[in-house]
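Protein RER1 (Zygosaccharomyces mellis), 186 aa
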Amino acid sequence: MELEEGDRSQLNTLSPISVRYHRALIFYRYYLDKSVPLIKERWAALALLLFLFELRVVLTHKWYLSCYTHGIFLLNQFLSFLTPKFDLSLQQDEENKELEAGERSDEFRPFIRRLPEFKFWNYSTRATLIALISTLFNFTDIPVFWPILFVYFIIIFILTMNRQIKHMLKYRYIPLDIGKKKYGSK
């Protein structure tokens, strides 16, 4: 975790607060890079953070609006994770034009996510930490009638997942690699 020469000269021209911020950022990026191959451990840590946040909300009977906004953010991230990077409806229109012209492209097109797994985990972890920290302050506890928010979240979840599943069926792609064959040495 040594600083390179260019980083050191750049840090010398900054204020002490900026230097500490940049060192903290380098420290954060170093351990973030170290966590890339640790997929199960990363997701277990996120599950633990989510459990702590939900436990805090349930035990205190507060911060329902924070919980709702956090849930909406995670749903949005999950949908980006399930969605292909390139619009399949435009690709299908191009293939139809090729068929009309007499050309057919049987080119293999791998599934590329709009939001890669690591970024999905990273953004979700950051959001969960922010939501957990927000439960430490009373001014972030805005009183709401939580059953309405819960029902509204369930409705949004069902409608968006229904739309996503129809899109997956229409364009025949599977965004998750659960159950796919693994090739290689045993």
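The chain has seven helices and no strands. Residues 1-34 form one domain. ok done for today
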